[in-house]
Amino acid sequence: EYADDTAIPFCNRADAEKYTPTPLLIEHFRRWGLEVHAGSYHPFKGSKTELLFCSRPLSTYQDPSTCDNTDMTDLILPNGRFVPVVTKFKYLGSYISSDGSDTIDVQSRIDSAARAFGALSKCIFRSQNIDRKAKSAIYESLILSICLYGCESWCLTEKLYSKLRQFHARCVRTMSHITLAQSRMYQIPTREIETELGLDSMDKYIARRQLRWLGHVSRMPFDRLPRRLLSSWLPYKRPRGAPEMTFGKTMIKALKTFDIDPKHWPAMAANRTNWRHRINK
Fold first, then answer.
1. pLDDT at 21 over 60
2. How many CA atoms lie within 13 A of 12 on its CB side?
3. Mapped to the 3 state alphabet, what secondary structure does 137-200 carry?
4. Chain centroid to CA 39: how far?
5. Could you tell me which residues come within 8 angstroms of residue 29 by beta carbon, excluding any fewer than 6 positions away?
6. Per-residue pLDDT for 182 more than 50?
7. How many CA atoms, within 13 angstroms, populate the side-chain half-sphere of residue 51?
């Protein structure tokens, strides 16, 4: 078997070059019956193992486009093998990008959900013979599950929120047989169409999933790593430039979606039943 879905952090490329090509790392996996899957040049074969470059905030580089000419060439291994250096990596179904943003992952989720919606569009979502409640149930259980997979950890900017809202609006118009031109001509708001279908807004679907996870983490014992990270901070000054969107700010948006006071949510989340009842309204 190969050492799939295993992440090993390196502080810099020098450390990666020091430990990866040598038998040290390869031997460590071999002790567990695993093999590091690397590519080969002769004959050429792609590598399942990849080295993700994680950059500093782009504002700290003199040339952000190249990250000050960072070496992005393949990591060479013995016997003509290599590990590519990448700027995005798919890990456990979600994309991790070099800048730490969720832009690539969100777009990937929207694309996957759009393909699923399109595959079922003619037989279900555009059909005149299927009840609206059935369409809504299928949409919530299948399409939204694909679209919002992993959203519990997303740091969503308004631009990303806008992309998700636009996808949701297209889907609800399709299910109601309303075109974009008709909605503009007759001034039909998306919220009105959602109400007729018995659906919530995209903001509520996202916030509900995020708060469900937030409450679960807050109830963990403090010796669990997710619980410790929830209230951790970095003892460094903020770099120059506009502040990056953080997980904490995204959770505050989610709390406000359900009119929950950000100062008092931990006490509310301690009671699982009441917490779920509050966010399922």
1. no
2. 2
3. HHHHHHHHHHHCCCHHHCCCCHHHHHHHHHHHHHHHHHHCCCCHHHHHHCCCCHHHHHHHHCCC
4. 27
5. 3, 35, 36
6. yes
7. 24
